[in-house]
Amino acid sequence: MSPESTGQNEHYIRVARRRFRTWRGDRPFWAGLFTILGGAPIAYFPYADLHLGNMTLTMSTTAGAGSLIIGVLLITLGLTMWFHHIVRVFAGIAAILLALISIPVANIGGFLIGFLFALVGGALSISWAPGLPESEQAADEQAAPSSEQPYEERPEAELQGAAAVPQQQGAEFDKAADADGGRHRAG
């Protein structure tokens, strides 16, 4: 064993967990999970039978097909958020609309459980934004001003004049055009 060899002694569970964490970070994972969890009770409750001793309580309604369609669409939208995150805004808006439609159609939105999960999942999907790649993130950190002092507290040498406009390096400026306000005379 040498300290230079990395990854050879890692346990497969640790490797799988790291890969899952990377996969989860590249997409609106929690939005998809909440939307799927919202679609499940909306689709399930109209077809569920509750057994209390010898008595069976059936919660099926005349809108059972509508509940099934809404639930399956919400589950599909949750999977879409995971695997096609480029359409996350559309999927989020559709999830919110389906959650709102489930209130009158699907047993008060799966007894409000499915409604709330789908509503939160749709909102998370709309608000999610992908992070910057590591190369762009490093470039942004380097481009940020190095001094932590506000503009007013910086030394005069760092301000570069009254306007504090950064000068282009290596570019020659037309002094004549600046003298007459930027207007060029023909001739």
TrEMBL record:
<feature type="transmembrane region" description="Helical">
    <location>
        <begin position="59"/>
        <end position="79"/>
    </location>
</feature>
<keyword id="KW-1133">Transmembrane helix</keyword>
<dbReference type="InterPro" id="IPR046096">
    <property type="entry name" value="DUF6114"/>
</dbReference>
<protein>
    <submittedName>
        <fullName>DUF6114 domain-containing protein</fullName>
    </submittedName>
</protein>
<feature type="region of interest" description="Disordered">
    <location>
        <begin position="135"/>
        <end position="187"/>
    </location>
</feature>
<dbReference type="Pfam" id="PF19609">
    <property type="entry name" value="DUF6114"/>
</dbReference>
<keyword id="KW-0812">Transmembrane</keyword>
<keyword id="KW-0472">Membrane</keyword>
<feature type="compositionally biased region" description="Low complexity">
    <location>
        <begin position="160"/>
        <end position="171"/>
    </location>
</feature>
<feature type="transmembrane region" description="Helical">
    <location>
        <begin position="111"/>
        <end position="129"/>
    </location>
</feature>
<feature type="compositionally biased region" description="Basic and acidic residues">
    <location>
        <begin position="172"/>
        <end position="187"/>
    </location>
</feature>
<feature type="transmembrane region" description="Helical">
    <location>
        <begin position="28"/>
        <end position="47"/>
    </location>
</feature>
<feature type="transmembrane region" description="Helical">
    <location>
        <begin position="86"/>
        <end position="105"/>
    </location>
</feature>
